[in-house]
Design brief:
Layout (H helix, E strand, L loop, with lengths): L1 E5 L2 E10 L4 E7 L10 E6 L8 E4 L8 H16 L1
Antiparallel strand pairs: 1-2, 2-3, 3-4, 4-5
Length: 82
């Protein structure tokens, strides 16, 4: 887990391999609202790369801003492509 900043606010970025589904998962969690779990997750199946990545938004929240989504995708891309 790492912590990254978006517009002056810290978010936990959790990067792990889910062996049960053969996916790499990068989750974004607001530590102030951690009871809600992750706000969004970027997943890649198997040995796929960025071109096979997909995004899921938690059903516990109504939405995320486009700027937050762009930031999260940039962070996930650097982890997956890097």
């Amino acid at each position: 887990m790492s912590r990254d900043s978006f517009q002056g606010k810290e978010f936990d970025v959790i990067d792990f391999d889910d062996v049960t589904s053969d996916e790499r998962v990068i989750e974004f969690v607001d530590p102030e609202r951690s009871a809600l779990g992750s706000l969004l997750a970027v997943t890649v199946s198997g040995d796929g790369g960025w071109e096979e990545a997909s995004v899921s938004i938690s059903p516990r929240i109504q939405n995320v801003s486009a700027e937050f989504m762009r930031w999260a995708l940039d962070v996930a891309h650097s982890k997956i492509a890097g």
